[in-house]
Amino acid sequence: NAGVTQTPKFRVLKTGQSMTLLCAQDMNHEYMYWYRQDPGMGLRLIHYSVGEGTTAKGEVPDGYNVSRLKKQNFLLGLESAAPSQTSVYFCASRRDYLTDTQYFGPGTRLTVL
Amino acid sequence: GDSVTQMEGPVTLSEEAFLTINCTYTATGYPSLFWYVQYPGEGLQLLLKATKADDKGSNKGFEATYRKETTSFHLEKGSVQVSDSAVYFCALSDSGTSYGKLTFGQGTILTVHP
Fold first, then answer.
1. How is chain A split among helix, strand and coil, in percent rounded to 5?
2. Cα gap B59→B47, rounded to integer Å
3. Using an 8 Å Cβ cutoff, are A52 and A70 in contact?
4. Could you give the CA distance from residue A103 to residue A3 in angstroms, rounded to a whole number?
5. Residue spans of chain B under pLDDT 50
6. Minimal C-alpha gap between B41 and chain A (Å)
7. Which residues of B touch A42 (CB under 8 A)?
């Protein structure tokens, strides 16, 4: 049982490049989340999904897109990376609406030059 | 909107010292409260939680009590170890939302010296 995994662990992009971050969970959780972590600001929610085929915006969605084609995977896309998107990205999952604990992946450190 | 405020850091202690990290919150409804810990180079791990007023969460020697009257959830440990060095995040999950958004504090860096 691997829990929540994220790929890649590190990535360096140039401004304007695109990339996709992959999050996978093997716990059959319904809900999945993408957060970004910036120094002194805690974690902020980018997008979330309450089930396969659904996505919704969080508090800082601009510049990102997401997809949840399979229940176990949640993809975060950057179409045209900007230096302001330099951050550490965390994926999390939660079993369902009856539980409130989120389980986090190890994170992806992204640098945009 | 909801918010979480943690004490300013970083916090530096000697081994076996007493630890308190303050956390206060603002929320509508009846949130669940959490402490997450992030060890160097790793993701966040749930340390403990409390789901209603006066509940005490505990794990690995850490404790926190949900105080509705003071809107606080302070983290305490009686005797810290070097291995407790990490970043600690206080968070709340508002049961009033349909998707269980977590609102985090800014994090407190704890360093424990031998």
1. 5, 50, 50
2. 6
3. yes
4. 8
5. none
6. 8
7. 4, 89, 91, 104-107
Distance CA A52, CA A69 (A): 6
Closest CA to A78 of A33, A18, A21: A18
Please state, in angstroms and rounded to a whole number, the distance separating the CA atoms of residues B106 and B30: 21
Provide the pairing of β-strand B23-26 with A73-78: unpaired
Which residue type occupies A16? G
Calculate the CA A4 to chain-centre distance: 11
* Torsional class of B29: left (φ above 0), alpha (ψ -120 to 50), beta (otherwise): left
User: pLDDT digit of tens for each residue in chain A (113 aa)?
Assistant: 779 999 999 999 999 999 999 999 999 999 999 999 998 788 999 999 999 999 999 989 999 999 999 999 999 999 999 999 999 999 999 998 888 889 999 999 999 99
What residues contact residue A28 under an 8 Å CB cut-off, 6+ apart?
Answer: A71, A72, A95
* Contact list, A48 vs chain B (CB under 8 Å): 99, 101
Instruction: Tokens for A28, please give them.
Output: 């059959």
User: Which chain A residue's Cα is nearest to B88?
Assistant: A42
Q: How far is A75 from A96, CA to CA, in rounded Å?
A: 19
C-beta separation of B114 from B82 below 8 A: yes
d(CA A91, CA A35): 6
